[in-house]
Amino acid sequence: MTFAVLSDVHANREALAAVLHEVDRIGTDGLLFLGDLVGYNADPEPCVEAVLGRAVAAVRGNHDRAVAGLMNLDWFNPVAAEAARWTRRAVGAGTLARLAGLPAGPFPVAGGVLLCHGTPSDEDEYLVAGSPVAAAFRTLEQSHPDARYCLHGHTHVPFAA
User: Fold this and answer.
1) What is the pLDDT of residues 47-106, one digit of tens each?
2) 3-class DSSP string for 4-59
3) 41 — phi, psi (to 5°)?
4) 14-36: per-residue pLDDT in tens?
5) Tell me, what DSSP letter sits at residue 102?
6) Phi, psi (degrees; rounded to nearest 5) at 99
7) Closest CA to 30 of 13, 14, 53
8) Is the dihedral of CA 133, 137, 142, 148 positive or negative?
9) Which of 24, 101, 117, 156 could form a disulfide with 61 if both were Cys (CB 3.0 to 4.6 A apart)?
10) Alpha carbon distances (Å) from 95 to 36, 52, 113
């Protein structure tokens, strides 16, 4: 099976449309989403609808939680906090409910795949290098021994291995 894996859309409708056009052109068996549908950009409702209308599985990101009122905005830098407040005002109750209903990662899907926004032990931790990576491997070995693949978003650094 072939899946498209997306993360950190941050309400960027134009970029999402371009990516989904390419996903459709290539053809996949489904879409997996790793969090942060909203935040920063001006089109949260269409992005939430487009991704959650297609995703076979998705996890929440820190911006999704913030907009849904599930976390304190003190954790965010001033620009991100203002974007979350604006998005809360801009979206309808249905979108807020959809964001609030997204599961926390790690979320297992078929084939030994785990979806994460941050790391397997902390959905807000950035997985970039050093000790967070070592800790993530330990968590996978201890808590998710059947995981064959662990997919991460949050860093805004594309990477495949």
Assistant:
1) 999 999 999 999 999 999 999 999 999 989 999 999 999 999 999 999 999 999 999 999
2) EEECCCCCCHHHHHHHHHHHHHHCCCEEEECCCCCCCCCCHHHHHHHHHCCEEEEC
3) -105, 175
4) 999 999 999 999 999 999 999 99
5) S
6) -65, -45
7) 53
8) positive
9) 117
10) 13, 10, 27
Residue that has been written with the tokens 């052109």 in this structure:
25
- 55 touches 3 (CB < 8 A): no
**Distances from the Cα of 24 to the Cα of 18, 21, 90, 137, angstroms:** 10, 5, 29, 33
Length of the chain counted residue by residue: 161
Q: Give one DSSP letter per residue of 111-129, joined into a string.
A: TTEEE-SS-SS-TT----S
pLDDT of residue 159: 63
Q: Where do the domains of the chain lie, and which CATH numbers do they carry?
A: 3-151 (3.60.21.10)
Q: What's the whole-model pTM score?
A: 0.94
Place of tokens 């290098």: 129
Identify the CA nearest to 106 among candidates 116, 94, 96.
Answer: 116
Token reading at 116: 């994460």
